[in-house]
What we know:
With 190 residues, this protein is mainly α. The protein contains 7 helices and no strands. Helix 2 (19-43) packs antiparallel against helix 3 (55-88), helix 5 (127-142) runs antiparallel to helix 6 and helix 6 (150-166) packs antiparallel against helix 7. It is elongated, with a radius of gyration of 18 Å.
Amino acid sequence: MIKNTHLHDNFEVNFTLKGFTSILIGTYFFFLAYAYKYILDSFLIDDHALGLLSPQIVEIIFISLAAVFVLFSSFALFFSGKRTSKRFQINLWNGKTKSTFLKYLIGIVIVFSTLITLMNLGFIDYIAPTFLIMYAFFLLLVRNKTRNNLLYLSGLSLLLGIYCLVIPGYWYSSLTILGIAHGTYGLIER
């Protein structure tokens, strides 16, 4: 059987944010935002069990939730790429996908390092806007040049980040909107 490597570009087919993968990541964003909001609200209530935790433990919980979010999102991208490469009978890993994976890893390290640094310096109100703005640039960095519709998702993330800078309490709504936008993008881009 002849492989379709000339008909399908590996980067175009593999590791793309479209369809069910985008819907999953949007769902993960939605649940992450809800979990953060629930933990913060419960932490502020005196009689609630989470109210008895120290701020350091809450920070560890938040970092752990973010790591689980990244892990699940990465698995969604990987398994989608693997399934697509098997369907088109092309190699999952080639020069383009390896370079994209390296950008992905570097981006994750930069985002986590920046957000943890902001947290340690006490700039809590800047964590959500910084994340949203960095996520917008991250989407631009790893996107395929032929997928211009991803610019809408990136632009929305940038606007939500700027909005969070102006109104810091808007972080929950911004993450929820980004989750819904990911799901909508997944429905449109199949």
